[in-house]
Amino acid sequence: MNVALAPRPSVVLRDADEAFVTLDGVTKVFGKGKASMTALENVSLELRKGEFVCILGTSGCGKSTLLSLVAGLDKVTSGTIEIADGRPAVMFQEPALLPWLTVRRNVELPMRLHKVDTEERNKTVNRLLSMVGLIDFADHRPHQLSGGMRQRCALARALAQDSELLLMDEPFAALDALTRDQLHDDLNRIWQETGKTIIFVTHNVREAVRLGDRVVLMTPRPGRVARIWDVDIARPRELDSFEVSGLAHEITAQLRAGAAGNGAQ
Ligand SMILES: Nc1ncnc2c1ncn2[C@@H]1O[C@H](COP(=O)(O)OP(=O)(O)O)[C@@H](O)[C@H]1O
Ligand SMILES: [Mg+2]
After folding, report:
1. What is the largest CA-CA distance in the chain?
2. 213, 52 Cβ separation under 8 angstroms
């Protein structure tokens, strides 16, 4: 089904029986002439429906640029992005909750905007708040929550958009290690329960290995796909397990080699 949306010139929607998300030769150049900067170069990638793909790379390699292109927030310079079904939901490092609204109100906002009726809205918000472990905090305001709880709230709000595709830009980067570990477990469970397709951006190698079906390593400046790993490690995974550590070690070695190679240019 092709869904008519507000203009998003770079992103074409198409039937769900093909790859769910396809990036084909995506290049993004910021600025013009001498001052121009190629943030992404010829990035091609296909995601299957329900797949969890982690995009990994050092700071400045174009990860956020890639997500904003897929989200339709910016336009590609060349290449195409195709998404099978609907507009993606996005979650950032900053939870961006509205401080004057309670947790419940923040989460139901996307449904209010879509004019979902009250009964359905309440049912869905309760289900989502239970899913992210915030049902007992429904009437709290963001300043009464810990950093981890705010990100849980932001996750519930992203899920309330009812998009099949969830784009996550370093959502746990500002959290302490223990909280991040809990959120990894919860995200893994929520992904399995909901069957969402997830593109998760991170600069943290272990996080990528812990969560992804595949890990896509990007090169820095310009951002290209350096290598893709299939992660055949049983779920749920532990951050310090032998398998996760082993693959993270291999990827880190490649990351270092890439950074060294790039620095020598
Ligand atoms: N709107 C913009 N205008 C100009 N340059 C930008 C813009 N957005 C990002 N960049 C540049 O593109 C490169 C990639 O940035 P970004 O996608 O934010 O990297 P990452 O998320 O991997 O840290 C950086 O060099 C950044 O300065
Ligand atoms: Mg970024």
Report:
1. 61
2. yes
Task: Indicate the SS3 state at residue 193.
Answer: helix
**Is 190 within 8 Å of 85 (Cβ atoms)?**
no
Q: Which ligand is nearest to the CA of 77?
A: 1
- pLDDT, block means (10 residues), the chain with 265 residues: 42 59 97 93 96 96 96 96 90 93 96 92 96 97 97 96 95 95 96 96 97 96 95 95 97 85 46
What is the pTM assigned to this prediction? 0.91
**Ligand 1 test: best mutation among 28, 43, 63, 65, most atoms within 8 Å of CB?**
65
Q: Which of 26, 29, 30 has the most ligand 1 atoms within 8 A of CB, as the residue to mutate?
A: 30
DSSP letter at 223 equals: B
Q: Tell me if 64 CB under 6 Å of ligand 1.
A: yes
